[in-house]
Design a protein that fits this description.
globular; 2 domains; binds cytidine-5'-monophosphate; 16 helices; about 20% strand; about 475 residues; 5-stranded parallel beta sheet; about 35% helix
Length: about 475
Amino acid sequence: MASITIRNLDEATKQLLRERAAHNGRSMEEEVRHLLRDSTQAPASFPAEPAIATVSPEIFDPLELDGKRILLIITGGIAAYKCLDLIRRLRERGASVRPVMTEGARAFITPLVVGALANDKVFLELFSREDEQDVGHISLARECDLVLVAPATADFIAKMALGIANDLASTIVLASNRPLLVAPAMNPIMWAAAALQRNMQQLRADGVHVIGPMRGEMAESGEAGTGRMAEPLDIVAAVRGLLAEAPGTISGPLTGKRAIVTSGPTHEPIDPVRYIANRSSGKQGHAIAAALAALGAQVTLVSGPVTITDPPGVLTVHVETAREMLDAVEQLLPADIAVMVAAVADWRASGEAGEKIKKKPGEAPPPLQLTENPDILKTVGHHAKRPALVVGFAAETQNLIDNAKGKLQRKGADWIVANDVSPAKGVMGGDRNHVRIVSRSGVEDWPEMDKTSVAARLAEKIAERFETTEV
Ligand code: C5P
């Protein structure tokens, strides 16, 4: 039997299976194989598994990418090792992964291990007689639902931007008419280089979807900054979002418009295990991203850590901190619309401790020094590439309208959606919202409604604004 496809299980059984698989550190497919093998060897006497004391940190639907064919191009960077996990994560969700490796990639990981994890042949050479007879490069480019380049090196990005096709990987990219998702990974100085950024602008203008890179430690000792490849699970989430419904393919009044939405809280690390956070659930921001996509906009959602799922038809980029959120948003400019809904932490701990801060008997608690975070809305509102429409939120517990008017001015926004987040209102984390739209022309008071309805009405208002004004 080559593979197992699990269908038609009821939710409770699926959940048990997920927990059992996570507990045993196996994919769902592997878990089912174990169960089947055990049951044939010793019918009706399953080996006693230890009780599951904790909830699995990672629960997923094993069919969420069922039948999706991912062509994975691995280029030559140290982050190539993360691809091995990426392949596993894609496959355990039901996707098939067909790997292509550049010569550079082979300096970091071997085709043998990639092929074993992908359970497929690894394609290496453009002019390989064997491969071309088997599956030609044009077929490789087309017989997939999405082309994913991870990691994408500076060199490969430059080739993509220029349309150079001098090896199998670059030829496939040029020959493909499938959605293309790129996960750059490189040294922070290379990432910041003007030439690289020019190439990234070109890729975005060509409709290529980009995830990351993220801020953090580099593989080179002592190097830190923006350049780490996005984490495999975040790449998987982006793949799922792109395949759920190709973003920007719905036709509506916002067709052709590019929107950026921020959502959720941010987590600001104090040390490797502790962080500063807030109660934002992301429900309102995610609903706005989905509502804009439903009117035809091409939406990228930049989400802080939330427990809700990525909205369909939207490319979701996951970040943790305010600085990562700002990086992600700035990389997405220019855009037509920015709706900044995230409850960004105003402050972060100055100097994150490299090790867990220990409690020492008899000593006073350590002081927590704070530094101001960048204001993303304000940066976007005053940016050289400012979107034509910039919308901010104001979550207040007092002087709602006055504070919102002040924010409109200070942050360079066109509208502020003001809501009262006093605990008694239950807005933070709740499903309903009562908002006022504050603009330079006045205040609109909307009745209380659920967050999805607020989102739909706001998206309609945005569409009207684009219809009536040449923005
Ligand atoms: O100043 P305040 O946090 O109340 O402003 C709220 C608005 O500003 C929201 O739209 C929020 O997303 C945005 N904001 C931001 N970056 C910050 C703080 C707030 O984008 N650091």
